[in-house]
Amino acid sequence: MAKQISRRQKVVNTTLKLIAGGGFHASPMSEVANLSKVAVGTIYHHFPSKEALFDAVHLETCTEMAKICNETYSNKVLKPVSKLSVIWIELFGYLSSEPQRFHALIQYRNTPPSMDNAEFEGALTAVKEIVKEGQKQGKFSKINVNILFEMWISSVLSAVRMKVVQKRKMSSNEIKELANQAVALVKK
Fold it and tell me: Which of 131, 135, 136, 168 lies 20 to 30 Å from 14 when distance is taken between CA atoms?
């Protein structure tokens, strides 16, 4: 028997599709309700506003990204350079395989009221901790951690954009090389 999707999850899934198709601001709640096959009131039962719905979509994506980062961060065997490379490849894989989430993430990061992106940066705290660890070991540049983080994560998002938006095929060797180049951005 197939698992039934909750109304809340239907709304989130529909919102992801609409954001990927035309953007958050071009997606009225009535269209979300219609495509989700729920009443508009049902949406407002779960989300007090359209912005809260957008925040919830963003938070789901960030939660998945945090799981990816934290799993590698907790690996005691890998060195900081290897950890950053592994996380880069894992995030690339996740966002490439979830293009709707990628589009929503980019739109959220570029929406002025959400410019602090606290959830996004919180999800990637492990990456900053890895950079700090590498700095202590003398492996990474002493540039401000937030600047190094932004350079590193921007390379992930740019590579995903090439694959998802530009439909560029990438071999596993190219992906590994991109990850290595991203790590080189933060190295001494």
Answer: 168
- Whether 135 is covered by a domain: the verdict is yes
Q: What is the pLDDT of residues 143-153, one digit of tens each?
A: 999 898 889 99
Model pLDDT for residues 55-114, shown as the tens digit of each residue:
888 889 988 999 999 999 999 999 999 999 999 999 999 999 999 999 999 888 877 654
For residue 131, the enclosing domain spans: 57-186
DSSP code of 116? T
Q: How far apart are CA 69 and CA 133, in angstroms?
A: 15
Residue 102 lies inside a defined structural domain of this protein: yes
List C-alpha distances in Å: 60 to 15, 56, 102, 138, 167.
12, 6, 12, 35, 25
